[in-house]
Structure formats: structure tokens, C-alpha cells
Amino acid sequence: MARALCTRCGLHPNTCVCEVCEQVDNRHRVIILQHPSEVGHSKGTVRVLQQCLTRLEVLVGESPESFSGQGLERLLTETRSGLLFPCADSQPVESNAAGQIDQWLVLDGTWRKAAKILYLNPQLRQLPCFHFADPPASRYRIRKAPKAGQLSTAEAVAYLLTLTEPATDT
Q: Any coiled-coil ranges, and where (predicted)?
């Protein structure tokens, strides 16, 4: 007999959080570039974001070819984009420069896989990169972050919106 799964998120009822997810009407569009190995991962947090955020798109891939069929180039030319990823020349999200960003791209995968997405996609390296100056401690206990100050994708997006949209209740 098949296991009963939540019809919204696809998770087992013991791990489903749909009942506690409230819809957030975020101003900035958030685009998650998700590594293929994260799709369907039982410990992934993108499902939570999909239940909560009104302006969220998830594109799955690793290479430019995998993202091109999903409209990444069009999304990047529509408005001013910023990449949430700590690069050598990244600026703090808390800086004034983040106020110029209309949509945020966030990489979802292990740190190694996220870095590979960035490396393989030169159009992402053209974007202004941002990091958190003083991120909160992660409260996501299911997967352990390799270093202090590293957050799950859902935590990073929630904190990003807290900083860039203070009037939005995240």
C-alpha cells in the first residue's frame, strides 16, 4: 500500500508543514536556481518557500542549457537582479546597493553544487553578488551547515526579505 503524502508539498504527514505556512506577499521576485539533486530531496526547504511566497520561481538545472529552456535569460533582462551568494566582490545585503535590486536569485544545493552552478553560468557571474554581514544562527536542524553563519535556502530567503522588505511579515 502506498504511503499517504500531502497533496500540496508531497511530503509525509509527519514532516509536512503546509498547515503552518502562511502566504507572504513579497514585493521582490525570488528566483531559486535549484540543483537537480535537490529536487524531491526530503530535507530540502524550497518546498516551504513554494507554499509561502507569492513571487517565487524555481528553475531546476546546473548548466546554461538547462536553464535557458526555463526562461532564465528573459528573467534576467526584465529587471535589476541580484545574486545572494558570498563571492569575493559581494556586498552586504544590508548595504544601500541592495536597495537597487528588484529581484533576487538564490542558489539551492550544497555549497559545492551551488558554486558549480555559479561557475557554469557566466550570466550569473555578471550580476551583483550579495552576502549577509551578520547572518542569524541557523535554526534548521535537519541538515547541518558546514560552517557557522550558513543558512538553509528557506532561512536565507526569509532573512533576505526581512532585510529588504521590512514591512513584509516573513
A: none
